[in-house]
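Now for one record:
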Amino acid sequence: ALERGFNSMARSIANAHKNLQSRIDEATEQLAHQALHDPLTGLPNRRAFERTLEETVAASRRAGDRGALCFVDLDHFKYVNDSAGHAAGDALLRAVADIFRQRLRGEDFVCRIGGDEFALILRGCAREDARRVAEGMCKAVADLRFEWGGREFRIGASIGFVMIDGRVTTVAEVLREADHACYSVKRDGRGQVAEYSVLAADGA
């Protein structure tokens, strides 16, 4: 009887330990997910973006992999946020995030880097493919009819992209060039797509 009691107690302790370890693993996984994802849209956050971009640039140097980085800045988002409230702005950001999720391939990467700014990393694509994807995103955002409080809002997206093909070898260069391309779109009328141009940058 004493032996059975000890065996039963040992099984209970083992089960309790197993359950506790399972809960610890689940909590650890949840914390790791939260550290790399935006709580509002569920997309990867800036930290995850920087890590993925470093890997993509390194692969272009090491193995000649090709890809593109697109910076997306929403047009007229501030008007929606200011006139309809932050809840409307949050709902709009989630709607835009869903558009990006639905249109990207499995190997591509989309994140919210802050505010109304998003970034897309397109893997294994040529220049023509990158422009086609960016223009498709631009049109999809422009076609969005966002309704809130009985009102309909229309926004747009300004997208600047740069090829990751070994020409630029540092993450800082890629970021600078994508940012410059996006700025040129905002400056020249918004709601369009532009690739970074060395000549245009030198003339700016």
Summary: Helices lie at 2-35, 46-63, 77-84, 86-103, 127-143, 171-187, 198-203. The longest strand covers residues 67-75. The two ends are 88 Å apart (CA to CA).
